[in-house]
Amino acid sequence: MDTLDIVIVLITIWTIPWKIYGVWTAVKLDHKRWFVALLILNTFSILELIYIFYILKKTGAEVKADFKAGWIALKGGLKKKEETPSVESGL
Questions:
Q1: What is the DSSP string of 51-67?
Q2: Each residue of 60-85: b (16+ CB within 10 Å) or e?
Q3: From the centroid of its chain, how far is CA 31?
Q4: How far apart are CA 81 and CA 84, in angstroms?
């Protein structure tokens, strides 16, 4: 893996959570124009950070709590899927 590959991976790891959080928040608050802008424009999370911290005026603690709640919900959903027995068709 060369340096460019590492940079691309790091940018991706940085961008994806912020994009998901920004778009999810815009949908939840019915901010349709922000939703479209955040979904379409790829700005290395600059637009998402502006929306979250300057438009919504969220604090770092609020964002951290939202990420933690989302992670817990995701893990809970994954556990439920693992616990659900698969039903084989007898046809």
A1: IIIIIS---HHHHHHHH
A2: eeebeeeeeeeeeeeeeeeeeeeeee
A3: 16
A4: 5
Instruction: Give yes or no for a contact between 51 and 38, defined as CB atoms under 8 angstroms apart.
Output: yes
The tens-digit pLDDT sequence of the chain (91 residues) is 799 999 999 999 999 999 999 999 999 999 999 999 999 998 889 999 999 999 999 999 999 999 999 889 888 877 766 666 655 555 4
Closest CA to 12 of 42, 50, 49: 42
Chain position carrying tokens 């979250």: 52
Compute φ and ψ for 45, nearest 5 degrees.
75, 5
pTM across the whole model: 0.72
**64 HSE (CA, 13 A, CB side):** 3
- Give the whole-angstrom CA distance, residue 28 versus residue 21: 10
Count of residues for the chain?
91
